[in-house]
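Retro notes (design track)

What went well: tokenization of the new backbones is finally stable.
What didn't: we kept losing track of which sequence belonged to which structure.
Fix going forward: every design gets posted as structure first, then sequence, in one message. First example under the new rule, 247 residues:
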């Protein structure tokens, strides 16, 4: 079953979104069942096999029978070597933290709450610190979601990398939860990706509105990126702020 990690098809992703629209469950609720509830029997370390993954989908999507082609495609898209290395499991598995992170990014909610939740997923020792490799796992899931949403990820990657440089100002390779949430909440393209639910957001300098752009757009005043590919934010204040400089 193992294969190189990849993306599910656009039609499978559309079907997944339909299921999520009708589900009332949150990832955090399902995760509790796998951590210390009736589903804990499916977990070994941070790894779950295909049967456990099917149970996760069944509970989270509130569907008795998730189509096999969809559950299998999703499972294979999450397969990765680091779960095997960390748990010494020899069978086909996926990381529960990766699965939970991915779905939490897609579901509704405040961007700040999503940033905090994804951080805690990988902060296994609960010391409030992540190293660079753990943060990379979160960013990887963000990149995957961006690809499904038809973003130009070649533009998103350097923005996230620059954000990480600003967080890790001392070059220690570690990031605190407060630093992670603060940086993410002030990175406009990331806020769009996380699902900015407000129709208008005033950050003190700009009044942002969701908008679709044909190409990446930058603010003419502060040089910050405000749009990636087909999605972004426009400023409602100075007319010179929006669309003044494009790639």
């Amino acid at each position: 079953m193992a294969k190189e990690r990849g993306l599910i098809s656009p039609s499978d992703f559309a079907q997944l979104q339909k299921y999520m629209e009708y589900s009332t469950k949150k990832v955090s609720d399902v995760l509790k069942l796998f951590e210390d509830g009736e589903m804990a029997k499916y977990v070994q370390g941070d790894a779950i096999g295909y049967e456990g993954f099917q149970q996760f989908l069944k509970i989270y999507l509130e569907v008795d029978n998730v189509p096999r082609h969809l559950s299998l495609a999703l499972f294979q898209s999450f397969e990765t070597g680091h779960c095997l290395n960390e748990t010494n499991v020899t069978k086909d598995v996926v990381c529960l933290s990766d699965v939970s992170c991915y779905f939490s990014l897609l579901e509704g909610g405040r961007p700040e709450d999503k940033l905090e939740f994804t951080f805690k997923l990988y902060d296994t020792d609960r010391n409030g610190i992540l190293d660079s490799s753990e943060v990379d796992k979160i960013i990887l899931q963000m990149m995957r979601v961006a690809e499904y949403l038809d973003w130009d990820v070649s533009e998103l990657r350097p923005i996230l990398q620059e954000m990480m440089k600003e967080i890790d100002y001392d070059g220690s390779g570690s990031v605190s939860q407060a630093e992670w949430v603060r940086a993410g909440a002030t990175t406009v393209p990331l806020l769009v990706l996380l699902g900015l639910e407000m129709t208008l957001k005033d950050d003190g300098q700009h009044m942002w509105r969701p908008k679709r752009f044909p190409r990446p757009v930058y603010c003419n005043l502060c040089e910050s990126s405000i749009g990636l590919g087909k999605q972004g934010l426009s400023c409602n204040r100075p007319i010179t702020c929006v669309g003044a400089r494009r790639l």
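Added context from the reviewer: Residues 208-243 form one domain.
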